[in-house]
Amino acid sequence: MAFDKTEVEKVAQLARLHISDIEKDEVTGRIKDILALIDEMQSVDTDAVAPLAHPLDMTQRLREDDVTESNRRDELQQLAPEVEAGLYLVPKVIE
């Protein structure tokens, strides 16, 4: 893809950015370098490489799913102004 100064000017206009001529040249050069790097990366033969979900081949250690706290629902619901069938009742906020 040919990328030149006019493309930078178009993008700057669309983004409502003021860019000086020196900055246009600098941005054009940087974008050309990025596009050249992308072309170089795309030219690498990756047919023999299997896709990875994660770069590290590790398994996560899992802990036992043990209950560490007791059920305090009844104790805490005694503090609530209104409770019904184990649920907190709150005032209606949307009419």
Report on the structure:
The chain has 95 residues and is mainly alpha-helical. Helices cover 39% and strands 4% of the residues. It has a domain at 5-42: Histone, subunit A, CATH 1.10.20. It has 3 helices and 2 strands; from the N terminus they run αααββ. The protein has a two-stranded antiparallel sheet. β1 and β2 form a beta hairpin. α1 (5-14) crosses α2 (21-42). The longest helix has 22 residues, at 21-42. The radius of gyration is 30 Å and the shape is elongated. The protein starts with a helix and ends in a 7-residue tail after the last strand.
Helices and strands in order:
Elements: H1 5-14, H2 21-42, H3 73-77, E1 83-84, E2 87-88
Antiparallel strand pairs: 1-2
Q: Provide the low-confidence segments as ranges.
A: none
Structural class: mainly alpha
User: What is the approximate shape?
Assistant: elongated
Mean pLDDT: 90
Rg over CA atoms: 30 Å
Outline:
The chain has 95 residues and is mostly helical.
Keywords:
4% strand, 95 residues, 2 strands, Histone, subunit A, mainly alpha, 3 helices, two-stranded antiparallel sheet
